Amino acid sequence: MKHSRVAIVGAGINGVMAGWALIERGYEVSLFEALRPMHATSRASSKMLHGGLRYLEQGAFGLIREALLERHWWLSQQTGLAAPLQIYIPCYKNTGRSPWVIRAGTLLYDLLAIGSKMPLSRRHEPSQVMQAIPGLRSEGLVGAISYWDASMDDEALGLWALARLQERGLKLHKACRVERLFNDGRMETEQGLETFDHLVNAAGPWSHHLLTRSELESPYDLLALRGSHLVVDRPLKAGCLFQQHDGRVVFYLPYKGCALLGTTEVAASSEDPSEPIKPSQREIDELIELHNRFVSPRIEPREIIQTMAGLRPLVLERSQAAKNTRTISRESVLLTHGKIVSLLGGKWTTARKQGEQIALAIEASQGFPTTS
Asked: Residue 360 to residues 2, 115, 308: CA-CA distances in angstroms?
């Protein structure tokens, strides 16, 4: 057993699951959050535990396989907060990727998911997909491919993990903003200085701002993308993935008896975590227009019962030129400055794996043999 004291900055899903990995290894963990746990991006996701079907186009097979294994782990916890979900990809004449490309992709996804006990992908006739997705546009519809991922209640699932950690001794410090980290293990909060054996920067979209305030260099930049969603008062039993002409996709998913529509990808500022993240009117209008292009009846304003938005941090090397966000890797990066380990980027689904990588980095800095 190790009795080193570790402070984690950020009680989003990355900070929580870093705490999970460290407590598993016997560390004493304190978790610091400027507002409240799971309050920002971690509760404004697309509500999916998934490998990332669209990442196949980037050739990110390792990331997808890792995420599919983690999807299986979350489902195996039997929390009642996650469940398998069938998702249909309607195929239309002269729109989006061809059916054979989609079918090849879902077959590869099945292969990468071996061992997850999920049903396999399959083809469907137009009548079958229209029965599964009421109101789906029939004009030009040539069929659909369906595959399986998992839906979740992101905020509740993260709070479930946090509660398990508190039962095992994790100390939670809410409404406690961390101002600066020092590479000798000191940490400055609004209450003053405190010293720990190790520090973890898991502040999500704001992690690079904490590095800047701490005068710590990084070879990376974070590109913050705002992802916005609408919750529409319409029942939906299966999920749907709509293809756009520019290659982007939008999900239409069942969520708490309603339908969740999203996400967008818009470059956004991430200066102040206390400022609420909201979708722009343009994003709302674009999501409504996309829905109305594929599904009837049209969405009426009174049917929109909630809007939500979060920031997704994508890691860019400073020497890397800006490019289409669809082609930027979703891989996370770890940085070490003395006794500080910083996590940049990452996916909700793989937060537990990212936490294990943080714990391994801390063990390596102590000279312990690393364990997985």
From this structure: 13, 25, 34
